[in-house]
Design brief:
elongated, 25% helix, Thrombin, subunit H, four-stranded antiparallel β-sheet, alpha+beta, six-stranded antiparallel barrel, 205 residues
């Protein structure tokens, strides 16, 4: 079971699965003044910028990079201390919350096997216990094979992409990406002109 979340389309994988990303540099903050915001694809992890007419506040948008979706699947946990069964409460490409009676201490490392039904199984080779409370654990994935990450991404895609949304046609760039490229080029040109006029900019090759 899961909830559908509407997101921006990723220019790399073509899935409508990108959400606002944290502004990680001064350049991110400068471009956001011109409504060019960073986004992160929840399925292929691609980070890109896109032009948006709405204004995103620092507090409201710059949260964790990957959303935890409310997805319940059976899970097996294994460590040197023993093994346990449980089920996910929420799930993303980088971690999950698990309902289980196991008592792994925070900081412990466990192996995780997610049983996704018809989508197959995903093995997380290493996950770190971040939180422990009665009846549940919070896990952050530390090591997962590329094939398992792709399988998990495809599985999560059914909850991230609204049903009936067409895929992006190859060779047809998105209008917001074209706008972002034009605005970005203009901003870079203005910065270089100002730096050259002040005499403090790098030499133009």
């Amino acid at each position: 079971m899961g909830v559908v979340v509407t997101m921006l389309r990723c220019p790399r994988c073509g899935q409508q699965a990108a959400r606002r990303s944290r502004r990680a540099s001064a350049w991110d903050h400068v471009l956001s003044v011109f409504h060019l915001y960073p986004f992160r694809c929840q399925l292929c992890t691609t980070r890109f910028r896109a032009f948006q007419t709405r204004h995103y506040s620092q507090r409201g948008a710059d949260r964790r990079e990957f959303d935890r979706l409310i997805v319940q699947v059976p899970v097996s946990l294994t460590s040197a201390a023993g093994a346990a069964e449980g089920s996910t409460v929420d799930l993303s490409l980088t971690g999950c919350s698990v309902r289980t009676e196991a008592a792994f201490a925070p900081g412990a490392t466990v192996q995780l096997r997610l049983r996704l039904g018809e989508a197959g199984e995903v093995e997380v080779q290493s996950a770190v216990v971040r939180t422990h409370r009665e009846g549940g654990l919070g896990l952050q994935f530390a090591q997962i094979a590329a094939v398992d990450r792709e399988r998990l991404g495809r599985y999560l895609g059914r909850f991230l992409r609204p049903s009936g949304t067409p895929r992006r046609r190859p060779g047809r760039p998105r209008p917001e990406l074209l706008a972002a490229a034009v605005v970005g080029a203009f901003v870079i040109l203005v910065v270089f002109l100002l730096m050259s006029r002040l005499g403090g900019g790098p030499p133009v090759r």
